[in-house]
Write a structure and sequence with these properties.
The complex is a heterotrimer of chains A (about 325), B (about 375) and C (about 290).
Chain A (H helix, E strand, L loop, with lengths): L6 E2 L3 E2 L5 H43 L1 H6 L3 E2 L4 E2 L2 H32 L2 H13 L5 H26 L16 H25 L3 H9 L4 H30 L2 H6 L17 H8 L7 H36 L11
Antiparallel strand pairs in A: 1-2, 3-4
Chain B lengths: L1 H17 L24 E6 L4 H15 L2 E6 L2 H10 L4 E4 L5 H7 L5 E16 L8 E2 L1 H9 L8 H6 L11 E5 L4 H13 L1 H5 L13 E3 L1 H11 L3 E6 H6 L3 E2 L1 E3 L5 E2 L3 H7 L25 E9 L9 H15 L2 H4 L10 H12 L2 E2 L2 E2 L2
Helix pairs in contact in B: 5-7, 12-14
Chain C lengths: L8 H36 L5 H5 L14 H32 L4 H14 L3 H14 L8 H26 L2 H9 L4 H29 L3 H4 L19 H9 L4 H31 L4
Classes of the chains: A mainly alpha (about 325), B alpha/beta (about 375), C mainly alpha (about 290).
């Protein structure tokens, strides 16, 4: 048998295909490469175009001036986005403070403590939180959460008014706290899902070793699970933070839309995303206003970029430590 | 099981698609019409103030019955209305406050903007306080102080002084104001600036100002929602919105020194005896007259004098003229049903003249 | 042999308290879900009716407010177009990354930027499309298809990421076996890789569709909102999220009720899509 060296016309082996037959392969490869390249080009164009449109605002106020000046005054044409940035940071920080402990507790409970049969249903229920659209959360928050929590908020502000930033002002319906609370609910699914994956990949030997040494369940979690999961959970929290920073619709319905830095927990505020949603309509023919809104979008974009980049770094570090890939399912990005 | 679910899913989608008829926008051949109106059918896009939106929406419905033309009006605020009008993305704009000189200059790239007053409306000071009845007496300086955040409680001495005998609760005042560019805001702040130097030098008079306190909401409807949902709140909304939601409204002190409640009569009274310039850009805030409500004014429809030159199709321009003729004609009788006052005679005549003068590429419209 | 040290009562107490707290945390996480669904049904079902689904919002200040027909139709059309754009593109990019891009720097760059895209707030997508297509006056002003493009941008990274995961799970041995039998590359992809991955791909795509159906921000300044039902994607279109967003900010009770009814409709649609997606996932031989 001379299989490997049999040749046909043109010194081509019989196993090789003719150039014509290779065409579909080539087409597929180049087609897909082009598609990938086009996606890249689109993203690059996206960033560049945003910057170009935002430039008039940066030219007028300077990049630092725009971001850090505490004066968003549309009527006078002064656009300093600091109150918006602060509002974004406050609500997102509140979301983390409220949401992360609950999400991590849920993750640990589902993986370590709950009866096996409940694992799937419980995980699914937490994931269902992600299926509720932002505008529906806003609707629910406005008509159910705000009225029901107002007395409690008032009581809290009165009782703890000696703590700076807690008391000290009129408790309005829409405010920073409600914004943070709604965001916390919205980031629960993603922080919990990734934390669950992280906690589930802790090596069994570590856990069994702790238990063998006589640790209680909780002690095992504290000694074996949590230290291992730290990086991954941090990454999960930062992904949640990234989501919270960019959330628009639910926040704009409950934040009060006041372009100042509120001076207490229950004051009204504003966020970068909310200001874009509220003011774009009037900016159609006012070039500076429009540039300012797009600049706000750019600041928002950069913020989420940085946060998500950090998150990714943490998650990759956790993956490397455990030698596994932590891939959340397609939804809830 | 899976197939059943797939069927259910398709059923839901099919319901949505099957339940719809063909598109509602067909040109020509409008509905039954007794009026011999040229260029029936079709649709018009307009955008702007939420102040007159109730009456414009009602007019649209009846105008469609008469001529078959659908008017799509978006309430995005006077600022948005002026912006879209200037950008040429709508057939007509709407604004409660007349365009400023700068705005006129920006719009004049496309042509001469024409202000057509449509109705008079009143900006009420509405509040949601259980213990207080309707008709709380407030004067200009007090209202300004409330919105400045200086008056923080409902039983403030400044309020109590004007309302002896009323039991005012020790509740915090929450302010509701606009977050978007609003002609209603401009009217309201004009009133405030007339009575409070602190307001004039502070937030000032404009379609959007830096509010010292309070929650921002979009549109008159948004402020109405804010007042409705928050106990102890106060906000400024057009009369129709206050009536729709059974708000308690304040009796505001006018220039003549009387406390006037917002009503159809007091709104009409504000339109009497005003000095109106030739281009009809006027404001009726703080109108003289014993019975005039001090925060009332006209609201304007904005069109270009030569609509075709500004970019409209001739048939479209004709439809806009039909709409304006309706507004100044049968529409004036519909307005009082929603508590908007029709234009006083002198103003009405001048408005009609403006509409008559609209052209298409130099030629008069029918 | 010494006995193992017994667990002290203090430690046992700490253990019990900690476990109680963890359980409490889990319950707290589920409370909002229960409350949202409860209120959705309680307040929304009252709005449901034949008229609700078959009439358009009337826009009348007094009188009959109308239903949400145009919103449902608009959402179906806009999301359908977005899906038609994003799913093939997303699967295509994922295919590229898996089949041809395991080691190339170019592929890593693409992968990185697609990851970046997942973190972009949805309103920035809307803003981008507003600048490029609406203000740039590409084919008119506001239009339904522009909303679809904004949604497609949002769906693309989600579909790509999910598809990449699924495609990677197709065992290389399958590919190699096909190649060894003499099948050309494109045949391997079309007849071996894609069919094995199909359920997973469908899951990922359906989840992306469910996500896009609920998005409001990208539609705010692209599709805008009109009251009448229209099938023309080249004009302004209504959509469920926008309709809800507008009605939430109204004071009138009947409009708020319509918002609840529309919200219930939207959530039902999304839950159905999610359910179907999960069922496909269960069917997948890979995950």
């Amino acid at each position: 048998m001379e299989a490997a060296t049999a040749t046909t016309r043109g010194d081509r082996s019989v196993l090789e295909r003719s150039p014509l037959a290779r065409l579909p392969d080539r087409a597929l490869r180049w087609g897909l490469t082009l598609l990938a390249g086009a996606t890249l080009a689109l993203i690059a164009y996206f960033i560049i175009r945003l910057y170009i449109e935002a430039k008039p605002a940066f030219d007028k106020f300077g990049v630092f001036g725009f971001t850090f000046d505490n004066n968003w005054d549309v009527s006078k044409g002064i656009f300093g986005a600091w109150p918006l940035v602060v509002g974004t940071l406050i609500t997102s920080a509140l979301a983390l403070v409220i949401g992360v402990p609950v999400a991590v507790a849920t993750a640990i409970y589902i993986v370590e403590l709950c009866p096996r049969k409940l694992r799937q249903p419980l995980s699914m229920m937490v994931e269902l939180l992600a299926a509720v659209p932002s505008v529906v959360y806003g609707l629910w928050a406005v008509f159910v959460v705000i009225p029901k929590l107002l007395p409690a908020e008032k009581w809290f502000a009165d009782t703890f008014s000696f703590i700076p930033w807690i008391g000290g002002g009129t408790v309005a319906g829409p405010n920073y706290f409600i914004g943070g609370l709604v965001l916390a609910i919205m980031i629960l699914p993603i922080v919990s899902a990734i934390s669950r994956e992280v906690v589930a990949t802790v090596p069994v030997e570590q856990k069994e070793a702790a238990l063998a040494l006589g640790a209680t369940r909780w002690e095992m979690i504290r000694m074996a699970v949590l230290p291992y999961s730290r990086a991954g959970i941090t990454g999960a929290s930062m992904l949640g933070l990234g989501r919270a920073i960019g959330e628009t619709i639910a926040v704009t319905l409950v934040i009060g839309n006041a372009p100042q830095i509120g001076n207490h927990l229950f004051a009204q505020g504003y966020t970068l995303a909310a200001v874009i949603a509220n003011e774009f309509g009037e900016a159609a023919s006012n070039h500076l206003h429009r540039a300012a809104l797009i600049a706000a979008g750019l600041v928002l974009f950069v913020l989420t970029l940085v946060v998500n980049g950090l998150a990714r770094a943490f998650v990759i570090r956790a993956e490397r430590k455990q030698g596994t890939r932590i891939a959340p399912e397609g939804a809830g990005a | 099981m899976r197939k059943l679910l797939a069927l259910v899913a398709f059923g839901v989608l099919a319901l949505g698609v099957a339940a719809c008829g063909s598109s509602d926008n067909d040109n020509g051949g409008g509905g039954s019409s007794s009026a011999s109106v040229p260029d029936k059918g079709g649709s018009l896009n307009g955008a702007g103030a939420t102040f007159p939106q109730p009456v414009y929406d009602e007019w649209s419905a009846r105008f469609k019955d008469n001529t078959g033309t659908t008017v799509n009006y978006q309430g995005i605020g006077s600022g948005g209305g002026v912006a879209q009008f200037t950008a040429g993305t709508v057939a007509f704009g709407a604004s409660d406050s007349a365009m400023t000189d700068d705005e006129v200059k920006a719009a004049s790239k496309k042509g001469d903007p024409v202000h057509v007053p449509s109705v008079l409306g009143a900006v009420t000071v509405s509040y949601n306080v259980d213990e207080v009845d309707k008709g709380l007496k407030l004067d200009g300086p007090t209202v300004a102080d409330i919105f400045l955040g200086k008056v923080k409680k409902w039983n403030d001495p400044g309020i109590a002084k004007q309302n002896s005998g009323a039991k005012l609760p020790d509740t915090d005042i929450s302010v509701c104001h606009r977050s978007d560019e609003s002609g209603t805001t401009k009217l309201f702040t004009t009133f405030l600036a007339d009575y409070s130097t602190a307001w004039k030098n502070g937030p000032g008079v404009d379609k959007t100002v830096k509010w010292p306190t309070g929650t921002g909401a979009k549109g008159n409807d948004g402020v109405a929602a804010c007042v409705k949902q928050n106990k102890g709140s106060v906000g400024y909304v057009e009369q129709a919105f206050a009536l729709q939601n059974n708000f308690k409204t304040a009796d505001v002190k006018n220039e003549a020194g009387n406390y006037i409640a917002p009503s159809l009569d007091s709104t009409s009274a504000a339109g009497v005896g005003l000095k109106i310039p030739t281009d009809l850009r006027f404001s009726a805030i703080n109108a003289p007259g014993d019975k005039a409500y001090p925060i009332a004014s006209a609201t304007f429809l904005l069109v270009y004098k030569d609509m075709c030159k500004a970019g409209q199709e001739p048939a479209q321009a004709q439809r806009v003229k039909n709409w304006l003729s309706y507004a100044l004609g049968a529409g004036q009788k519909v307005a009082p049903e929603l508590q908007y006052a029709p234009l006083p005679d002198s103003l009405h005549t001048r408005a009609l003249a403006e509409v008559k003068g609209l052209t298409c590429n130099g030629k008069a419209l029918k | 042999m010494t006995t193992l040290q017994a667990v002290s009562p203090r430690r046992r107490r700490t253990d019990r308290i900690a476990r109680g707290l963890l359980l409490a945390g889990t319950i707290v996480a589920l409370v909002p879900l229960v409350l949202v669904l409860y209120y959705l049904v309680k307040k929304g079902i009252g709005a449901w009716g034949i008229d609700f689904f078959t009439t358009d919002p009337s826009g009348r200040f007094f009188g009959d407010p109308g239903g949400i027909k145009s919103a449902i139709v608009g959402t179906v059309l806009i999301v359908a177009l977005a899906t038609a754009i994003a799913v093939p593109a997303g699967i295509g990019v994922a295919l590229y990354l898996v089949e041809y891009g395991k080691k190339s720097t170019f592929a890593n760059v693409v992968r990185y930027f697609v990851d970046v895209l997942t973190g972009v707030p949805s309103i920035v997508f809307g803003l981008f499309i507003y600048i490029v297509l609406v203000l740039g006056n590409v084919g008119g002003n506001f239009a339904g298809w522009k909303g679809s493009v904004a949604l497609a941008l949002l769906m693309l990274p989600v579909v790509t990421r999910a598809s990449e995961v699924v495609l990677q799970l197709v065992p290389d041995s399958l590919r190699e076996a096909a190649l060894a039998l003499g099948a050309p590359r494109w045949r391997v992809v079309a007849r071996v890789v894609l069919p094995s991955a199909l359920p997973g791909l469908v899951t990922g795509s359906l989840l992306a569709v469910a996500r896009a159906a609920g998005e409001t921000a990208p539609l705010l300044f692209t599709a805008f909102a009109v009251k009448a039902t229209t099938l023309d994607l080249g004009t302004q279109m209504n959509s469920l999220p926008i309709q809800i967003f507008n009605d939430v900010r109204q004071a009138q009770d009947r409009l708020v009720e319509r918002a609840w009814g529309a919200a219930l409709t939207l959530v039902v649609m999304i839950l159905l899509l999610t359910l179907i997606a999960r069922l496909f996932q269960r069917r997948s031989r890979l995950t």
